[in-house]
Specification:
Elements (H helix, E strand, L loop, with lengths): L6 E3 L5 E3 L2 E2 H8 L3 E5 H19 L3 E6 L6 H9 L3 E4 L2 H9 L7 E3 L6 H10 L3 E4 L2 H13 L4 E8 L21 E2 L4 H10 L4 E7 L10 H21 L5 E3 L17 H19 L5 E4 L3 H4 L3 E13 L3 E6 L8 H5 L5 E3 L9 E6 L8 E8 L7 E5 L19 E6 L2 E6 L4 H5 L5
Parallel strand pairs: 4-20, 5-6, 5-13, 6-7, 7-8, 8-9, 9-10, 9-11, 11-12, 12-13, 15-17
Antiparallel strand pairs: 1-2, 2-3, 4-14, 14-15, 14-19, 16-19, 17-18, 20-21
Helix pairs in contact: 2-9, 5-6, 8-9
Bound molecules: pyridoxal-5'-phosphate.
């Protein structure tokens, strides 16, 4: 009945997450509020971990793409679950370091890493730096040499695969700001260059074809293209690459009609493709890395808001205004991402209304969603927006100087704050006169 397994209904007809009453949580902590079910996150970590072990015989690693939801608690959970961690900035790296995340399981991504970021990665001993372009390769080589190190790297490759998803979250095609192109020979040139660099050890290749993908086929296609390139590299340069990182992008259920692929099926099918391709190409099966972000944390989160007003415009639409908006969830205004919402205190009632949920920011486009089915609603009701665990807190801003909400984590039915609510002092903390 619900888009996520951690959601339910209690005897009061209230929406629950992780068995806890969302209305009560809203009363305790105030709104807007992000609530995350840690048990759900750990279940997702475990099922990815078990399935990569099963299909690659332990020769694989699941790294959590921390950009989906990055804070100390999230890094600690990934660490305890034995996952690796993707970071794309010094801020994410610093967060990982703050909980003592094992550096060898960290992958540093990004299309424009700064000197400061590359130095921080070398200093912490980050396992793999995923190099995006030639300027970065040269810079990293120099930095590594001057620090008497050899940087262990992967190359980010554009495999030229069209994943059927929104253009802004599609990254595998040639017209993308990320990575080296295969078709033009750019990638092979980079491999030859890296082979001669004293400060660089090229360990493998990486691709990431997009996000919120529901089909397995683009992943299989990408794996075939990447393995073909590994074989070509061996043939033309003699270099045997050991790691193939196939990226993340597994879709989740935001709406009832969404039908995401089960991780286990993905892993089974892609691992078969990988093994078949390797056999056909006469290369050893590489160590496989996958990088889920959204699918680890997305279904585990809800955002709770209080309704301030309901504005019916006859013949036009009904606006339900909540006490957050694009400042805590910019995904609708960014790429028209759709969510399910319900009145948490009337969750057992049918959703007979069709409304637009609007935020409180000074932008007409500040909406959480349009044409959303909702229960009868009035000022004071608590609205829950579902599946907001990924790319909500991590994309939040202080637009209109609105303090960011707290994040409450639930584990074994117990609640704790893992990110405190910003205060007004936080808002002016960096201001100088
Ligand atoms: C964003 C990203 C991911 C995670 O994508 P999801 O859609 O959240 O699974 C993985 N790898 C890289 C390189 C990314 O940029």
């Amino acid at each position: 009945m619900f888009v996520s397994d951690c959601l339910g209904l209690n005897a009061l007809g209230h929406l629950t997450i992780g068995g806890r009453d969302t209305v009560e949580l809203a009363q305790t902590y105030g709104t807007p509020l992000y609530v995350m079910d840690e048990d759900e996150i750990r279940r997702a970590c475990a099922s990815y971990r078990e399935s990569i072990n099963k299909y690659y015989g332990g020769r694989g690693l699941v790294t959590y793409a921390s950009k989906a939801f990055c804070c100390k608690a999230a890094c600690k959970i990934a660490m305890e679950e034995g996952l690796g961690l993707d970071v794309v900035s010094i801020g994410e790296l610093y967060t990982a370091q703050s909980v003592g995340f094992p550096p060898e399981r960290i992958f540093f991504h990004g299309n424009n890493k700064t000197v400061q970021e590359l130095l921080a990665a070398l200093e912490y001993g980050v396992g793999q730096i995923v190099v995006d372009n030639l300027s970065e390769l040269e810079l990293l080589n120099q930095l590594a040499i001057s620090h008497n190190q050899k940087a262990s790297i992967l190359f980010r490759i554009k495999p030229g695969v069209d994943a059927h998803t929104h253009a802004f979250i599609r990254t595998g095609q040639i017209d993308s700001k990320f990575g080296f192109a295969l078709e033009t020979g750019e990638a092979l040139g980079a491999v030859r260059m890296a082979a001669g660099m004293e400060g660089i050890e090229l360990k493998g290749l990486h691709c990431h074809i997009g996000s919120q993908i529901f089909d397995i086929e683009p992943f299989e296609h990408a794996a075939e293209v990447m393995l073909g390139f590994i074989a070509e590299i061996r043939e033309k340069t003699g270099l045997a690459l050991k790691i193939l990182d196939l990226g993340g992008g597994f879709g989740i259920k935001y709406l009832p009609e969404h039908d995401p692929v089960q991780y286990d099926r993905y892993m089974m099918q892609v691992s078969e493709t990988v093994k078949k391709s390797c056999a056909a190409l006469g290369i050893n099966t590489p160590y496989i890395v996958i990088e889920p972000g959204r699918s680890i944390v997305g279904p585990a989160g809800v955002t709770l808001y209080t309704v301030g007003s309901v504005k019916e415009i006859p013949g036009v639409r009904t606006y339900v205004a909540v006490d957050g908006g694009m400042c805590d969830n910019p995904r609708y205004i960014l790429y028209q991402s759709e969510y399910e919402a319900m009145v948490a205190n009337k969750a057992s009632q049918p959703r007979l209304r069709t409304v637009t949920i609007a935020g409180k920011c000074c932008e007409s486009g500040d909406l959480i969603g349009e044409r959303m089915p909702l229960q009868e609603v009035q000022a004071g009701d608590i609205i829950a927006v579902l599946s907001t665990g990924a790319y909500n807190y991590s994309m939040a801003s202080n637009y209109n100087r609105i303090p960011k909400p707290a994040v409450v984590m639930l584990r074994d039915g117990k609640d704790r704050v893992v990110v405190r609510r910003e205060t007004l002092d936080d808002i002016i903390r960096n201001d100088l006169l």
